[in-house]
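Section handout 9: paired folding examples.
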Amino acid sequence: MKSLVLFALAAVAAYPQKTLTIDDFRTGEFRSTTNCGDTFEEIQPGAGILGGYRLTRLVTANPNNRPCGVELPSGGPLYMEMGVGVLYRLELIYGVDGDGVAVPLNLDLRPYDNLRLRFDSIDTLVNFNVVVFFPDASRAQFGENIVPPGPGGRTVLMPKSSFVITGKADWASVSSILVIAQTGGENTDFSISLFDATN
């Protein structure tokens, strides 16, 4: 038995779990300041953000004049709260500088098999997409309708093999990453605590 345990420990040491944090949603705090129904766009710096900056854009249509917004308080996570009948599109963009100008991440994702995003809570269906851009304007896109799982939230695992490729995927040189969450159901509330790459 002891030899089996030692063998297992040796295997773990030889093949460690690899993860790369893209956004830990604990830094880069902000709160949407525009009226619900207008477009909010802001760049947040943060030590827990790949490339050092996150561009957050929230576009809403608010026919019933209901409250809505997106917020990341100090220490996280990111909260999204949409009022009755509000249509929305939330974008998180990685690969920009402090002025919002595109700056390639030059990110090598070859050591990782998956991208992963953690919803701590989600109460209605969300149309969810991740787009990975490469230097020659090629891209890889993953899309899924996220169904509320009940208490406990949900982790969305995105195998690179499941991405739809337009052009040629160069996982050794990722320029930027776009995360999209948009209207799937009404009165949407959710929170996100982690976006990373893992094997």
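Moving on to protein 2 of 2.
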Amino acid sequence: MNEDNKGMTPEAEMLVNSIKWDLKVNNGKLSENLVEGALQESEKRYDYHRGVTTCIVTLPTGHKVVGYAMIMKECNSDNILGAKVALADAKKKLWNLLAIIAKLFMKECK
């Protein structure tokens, strides 16, 4: 375990190390591959209620992001399409969350 990552779970340490590596090899920027990888390693749960689909993504660190998909009329409800849209929304929010975590390590990568 890296001394800087003391107290982290192995999963959280792996995510932090992935972020650090991604920043290093991409000149201080996060890549879409990092976001996709984090999404793959995360738990995803979908809920459907009265025309609203939510996608709750829980990172190995315990951080959560929630994506939403809403329809105007319940009779037009399509759970598969709603799940795709909610996941895309959660992915945007995940990118933002990873960027916030990355900011903590930016000076280490210079």
